[in-house]
Amino acid sequence: MPFSADRLALLLGTWDGGEGPRWRRLADRLDALVQAGTLADDLQLPTERALARRLGLGRGTVAAAYDELGHRGLAVSRQGSGSRVRRPAGAPPGPRGTSAMFATLGGSPEGTIDLSLAETRCIEGTRAAIAAIDPRWVTAHVDGTGYLPAGLPALRAALAGWLQHRGLPATADSIVVTVGAQQAISITTQVLCPAGSAVLVEEATYPGALEVFRRLGLRVVSIPGDGGGPDPSALEALAARLRPAMVYLIPVGNNPTGMVLSPARLDALAAVLARTGTPVLDDRTPAPLAPPALNVPHLATRLPAGQVVTVGSASKVAWAGLRTGWLVGAPGFVREAVAARIAADLAPPLTSQALVAALVPHLDVMAEQARAEVAKARRAAIDELASRLPDGVVAPTDAGAWLWLQLPGADAVRLTETAERHGVLVTAGPVFSAEGRLRDRLRIATVAEPAEVRTGIQRLTQAWEASGDLARPRREAAMLVI
Ligand SMILES: Cc1ncc(COP(=O)(O)O)c(C=O)c1O
User: Quick one: which atom of ligand 1 is closest to the CA of 324?
Assistant: First the structure.
């Protein structure tokens, strides 16, 4: 049975943006899906006719894209049995998929060092703060039915205070507690973006958000940028052409680049958004990992009320296992978000919320400790890379729990696969790109113990040498830009 054209259309997401003939853009997107393992080896692709009908294309366009895939060695066609995926020789068994970075959420194979997941560990300060919570505080909230769709009032009030002190004019009523920032992104997208509408994202962005956008059948297009973030005039042009339903930005500690937008760039982007009126999702999840001095104003302070939804989470600052995040929006949006959340899960778990409410007064201290832990792992990664990397460029990283590497001439997808066989997991650039680009980029998470990070990077550089991209190591030529 061929793979369904409907499902493939969902996975394809945004192939239609960008330059060049349509057949080639379609082939590029299919290529990225095969390389990432989303389309498993031997999978039978939809018939040309079915996919053409589903995508509203001529059959010849799909045929040319399948042919191109064949030329690239990623598909084989047999008379009468259509086209089947051929994953490159040596590729690990799929499917790691567009969710490649989440493939090891349940634990990685024994002996493997996982530098692909960027969730901070539960730091000592968080453990101590949890241990110090009076159990009566939690049992005091074990009351009523336990269904509070907007969240526990004590937590909403505590968060409002903390967010105000971080510069966001939040009130308890403007907050909906969610199961992590991930659910906040999902709910916000469901409310703001009708199926088939366009969403604009940064050139490198959080894959968990891309996954939500694709599954909701949205067209995801990245905003061309430069070293300082998305280009405001490119944003303006795309907004005029595509009339997007939402722009998704991670202004502080972008995942994966670690970049913090400058106040000037943030203002320039806000000025465009004010003119176009496009709704914005301002994802501040990684912000606590940025030095406080780098935190730029929230977009909600630069745009009319009602245009911005701000999302945050206890994951980076306290612990991801608490599964507690939030969204902050205008009254009308909050009403719709609560309705959408009721359909998803009725209400967030109360006991976790009670714990987080008790942790809120300690969040700033915990964030400081989390930054110190990440800094140690980062230093270890940078030192190890500096002594081993020949021509890689570690792009300047302002914040975040990761390093973003440019590997001139290397194929990061192939490298991650070789690295996995050498016992280390890292994440290839295309996972972070709406269009499956950034093949010469690699993200290394810096949340493990420094010694483990060092061993992981040793394995990575061995893999790089083995992959053939690093044929002649020239250690003295290290180019590290931090
Ligand atoms: C930018 C960004 N947004 C959202 C999330 C999801 O966070 P949570 O664990 O709160 O669901 C992450 C997690 O890595 C992230 O980096």
Answer: 10
Smallest CA separation from ligand 1 atom 12, residue: 285
Concatenating the DSSP letter of every residue in 290-306 gives: S-GGGPPPPGGGTS-TT
Q: What is the pLDDT of residue 477?
A: 33
If you take atom 3 of ligand 1, which residue's CA is the nearest one?
285
- Strand runs (DSSP E) across 224-351, as ranges? 225-226, 229-230, 246-249, 280-283, 308-313, 325-328
Ligand 1 pocket mutation, candidates 313, 345, 352, 427, criterion most atoms within 8 A of CB:
313
Q: Across the chain, which distance is largest between two alpha carbons, in Å?
A: 71
**Residue 137, helix vs strand vs coil:** helix
> What is the predicted pLDDT for the residue at 349?
94
Q: In whole angstroms, what is the distance from residue 152 CA to residue 318 CA?
A: 18
The confidence score (pLDDT) of residue 78 equals 80
Site residues for ligand 1, CB cut-off 6 Å: 118, 180-182, 206, 208, 250, 255, 283, 285-286, 313, 315, 320, 325
CA neighbours closer than 13 Å in the CB half-sphere of residue 222: 25
The predicted structure's pLDDT at residue 165: 94
Question: How big is the CA angle at 278 (ends 277 and 282), to the nearest 5 degrees?
Answer: 120
CA of 180 to the centre of ligand 1 (A): 7
The candidate with the shortest Cα–Cα distance to 181, out of 207, 160, 143, 209, is 209
> Beta strands 219-223 and 198-202: pairing type?
parallel
**pLDDT of the residue at 88:** 66
Ligand 1 atom at minimal distance to the Cα of residue 253: 1
Write down the pLDDT at residue 393. Answer: 55
Atom number of ligand 1 nearest to Cα 206: 1
Chunked mean pLDDT (size 10), the chain, 482 residues: 79 72 87 73 87 92 91 83 76 40 60 86 85 88 89 97 96 98 98 95 96 92 94 97 97 94 97 98 95 92 96 94 97 98 96 94 92 90 81 64 85 88 93 90 91 94 78 38 36
pLDDT of residue 106: 57
Distance from residue 182's CA to the centre of ligand 1 (Å): 6
